[in-house]
C-alpha cells in the first residue's frame, strides 16, 4: 500500500487514525512518502500546509510502526516452505538465486542455478530479515 503523510489539512487526529489503521490491517510493507508541494497543483494553493518538522515527525512515527509490523510478519515465515517464482541470480550473493512469492516477498535461496529462472519452486525459509526471506531449495514445482 502507499501512504502519504503531511497532506495539507492533515491534523494530528487524522494522522493517528492512519496509524490505527496501519496497526489494524498490519501491512507487511508500505510505500511511505512525505507530501511535498508541487507548483501548479490545487493542493499547492491550500492554506493549511503542514509544517515540515511535523511532516517529518509523522513520517518517522509511521515508519517505526510499519517496520515493526513488517519485521514481526516476516519472522513468521522462518521454518515454513513457500512457493517462489525464480527471477534471477541474487544481486547480493551470486551463490544464491532470487525470486518472489505470490505476495511479492523477495526470497534469496541456495540449491539452484540459472536453469530455474522462470520456474516455480518450493523454498524452505531459514532466515527472515527486514523485507527479505532467505532459504534453501526444496523442490521444483514446474
Q: Based on DSSP secondary structure assignment, what is the total number of beta strands? A: 7
Round the mean pLDDT to the nearest integer and report it: 96
First-to-last CA distance: 30 Å
- Please state how the strands of the largest beta sheet are arranged side by side: 3-4-5-7-6
The CATH class of the largest domain is identified as Alpha Beta
Order of helices and strands: EHEHEEEEE
- Poorly predicted ranges (pLDDT <50, ≥5 residues)? none
Mind describing the biggest β-sheet?
5 strands, mixed, barrel
What is the fold-level CATH name, i.e. the topology of the largest domain? Transcription Regulator spoIIAA
Structural domains: how many? 2
Tell me the overall shape: elongated
Number of helices: 2
Strand coverage percent: 25-35%
How would you briefly describe this protein structure?
By secondary structure, this protein is of the alpha/beta class. Strand 4 and strand 5 form a beta hairpin.
Amino acid at each position: 500500500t502507499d501512504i502519504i503523510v503531511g497532506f495539507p489539512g492533515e491534523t494530528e487526529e487524522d494522522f493517528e487514525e492512519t496509524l490505527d489503521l496501519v496497526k489494524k490491517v498490519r501491512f507487511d510493507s508500505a510505500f511511505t512518502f512525505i507530501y511535498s508541494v508541487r507548483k501548479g497543483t490545487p493542493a499547492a494553493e491550500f492554506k493549511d500546509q503542514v509544517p515540515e518538522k511535523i511532516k517529518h515527525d509523522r513520517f518517522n512515527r509511521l515508519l517505526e510502526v510499519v517496520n515493526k509490523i513488517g519485521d514481526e510478519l516476516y519472522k513468521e515465515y522462518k521454518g515454513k516452505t513457500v512457493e517462489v517464482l525464480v527471477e534471477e541470480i541474487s544481486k547480493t550473493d551470486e551463490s544464491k538465486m532470487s525470486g518472489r512469492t505470490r505476495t511479492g516477498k523477495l526470497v534469496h535461496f541456495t540449491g539452484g542455478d540459472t536453469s530455474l529462472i522462470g520456474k516455480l519452486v518450493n523454498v524452505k525459509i531459514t532466515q527472515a530479515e527486514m523485507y527479505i526471506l532467505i532459504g534453501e531449495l526444496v523442490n521444483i514445482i514446474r
